[in-house]
UniProtKB/TrEMBL annotation:
This is Redoxin domain-containing protein. The keyword RNA-binding does not apply. Transmembrane segments: none annotated. Residues 234-372 form the Thioredoxin domain. PROSITE patterns: PROKAR_LIPOPROTEIN, THIOREDOXIN_1, THIOREDOXIN_2. It comes from the Bacteria. Keywords: Cytochrome c-type biogenesis, Disulfide bond, Redox-active center. It is found in: Cell envelope.
Length: 372
């Protein structure tokens, strides 16, 4: 389930992460040769906030005045951003390609994801892709909503999972075909960037090879190339892959520096609600088994260092913490295929991964098995 939800989680993470928010100010209006976004949303109160969030580069904000809003800026290449309205997040979010041209957005407050966006050449290519996958996406959403029913019979649940898997395979096929057809499109790099933790790594490599040199040298193209250069994800029963990142004091720490009979590598972040809720119990587990050789290293997928440090203090986390402050592009997360948080894995004293993605009672049971 985590694997299939990667795209949605990553996008929501982008939207609601602790990126620095830049007010729509006079400074933006001073920029020339950039983009101007003129948007309309009927029947919405004045002073409602609108967010335009980029995966890297922060979040702009604007305010609704007379059912209208505006953003201005400039980009050195087409860049994906996501539009969302404060207080109307159930309407979803719209992918907006920022290019240095005039862009118009006509949206419905209750269905932002279906906004009509005109003006950007790359946006037209995004529209082509959206039309090809919309039916698949809608069916996936329906099936995921059914999975939320606690009374679902096991046999029916298994059937739904099979159907979800089939739809995901269809989506992957459509995506690969789009990349073949549009090797010069920035949309193709965005598809690969969102899929790098879902697809087989060789499939990512094959699709990346089809891209034009210009697209390979784009910001997202270079990100994909970096991902492909990393070691392959280790599986349970295999040796761990070492990594090094800075702790909250700026000291470089390697995973191999952590010594213990069993080491839990915990992927989390300050903005992850399930992570924060599970921390008190994790602290209990740590104190219960520490004297028997249990150690933890936390790997944060934060981007905001102050928020990360505050969360460590507020949750009173006593174990080693590291982060490269790159969000879901955290190098360790990329190596280990972490596509949603919280996530974790356990390494034994021989450096072998013995368990993965254990939460709550499953983690407690595993610790009892290992230490008793």
């Amino acid at each position: 389930m985590k694997l299939k939800l990667f795209t949605v989680i990553v996008l929501l993470t982008i939207l609601f992460s602790c990126n620095k928010k830049n007010k729509a100010s006079e400074n933006l209006k001073e920029r020339v040769n950039g983009y101007t976004i003129s948007g309309t949303i009927p029947d919405i109160p004045d002073s409602t906030l609108v967010y335009l969030s980029k995966p890297v580069g922060g979040t702009q904000t604007s305010w609704i005045i007379n059912n209208s809003f505006e953003f201005q800026g400039s980009e050195d290449e087409p860049t994906i951003a996501y539009l969302v309205i404060e207080g109307y997040r159930n309407g979803g979010f719209a992918p907006v390609w920022l290019e240095n041209t005039d862009i118009t957005i006509n949206a419905n407050k209750n269905a932002v994801k279906n906004a009509d966006i005109i003006g950007s050449p790359t946006q037209k290519e995004q529209d082509v892709f959206n039309k090809r996958v919309d039916k698949i996406s809608n069916e996936q959403v329906k099936l995921y909503s059914l999975m939320g029913n606690d009374q679902l019979q096991p046999q029916l649940r298994d059937s739904i999972l099979i159907a979800i898997d089939s739809l995901e395979k269809q989506r992957i096929t459509v995506s690969k075909d789009f990349i073949k057809e549009f090797p010069k499109s920035y949309v193709s790099t965005n598809i690969l960037a969102l899929s790098k933790m879902i697809w087989n790594k060789q499939d990512i490599r094959d699709s990346y090879a089809l891209l034009s040199e210009e697209i390979k040298n784009s910001k997202q193209g270079k990100t994909i190339a970096y991902f492909l250069s990393l070691p392959d994800k280790p599986e349970i029963g295999q040796k761990y892959v070492d990594f090094m990142q800075a702790d909250q004091n700026g000291n470089e720490v390697k995973l191999s520096d952590i010594k213990g009979k069993y080491i839990l590598v915990e992927f989390w972040s300050s903005w992850c609600v399930p992570c924060r809720k599970s921390n008190p119990k994790l602290v209990e587990n740590y104190r219960q088994y520490k004297d028997q050789g249990f150690e933890i290293i936390g790997v944060s997928l934060d981007e905001d260092k102050k928020a990360w440090i505050k969360a460590i203090k507020d949750d009173d986390l006593p174990w080693t913490q590291v982060s490269d402050l790159k969000g879901f592009n955290n190098e360790a997360a990329l190596i280990y295929g972490v596509n949603a948080i919280p996530d974790n894995f356990i390494i034994d004293s021989e450096g072998v991964i013995v368990a993965r993605t254990l939460r709550g009672i499953l983690l407690e049971d595993k610790l009892k098995e290992l230490f008793n």
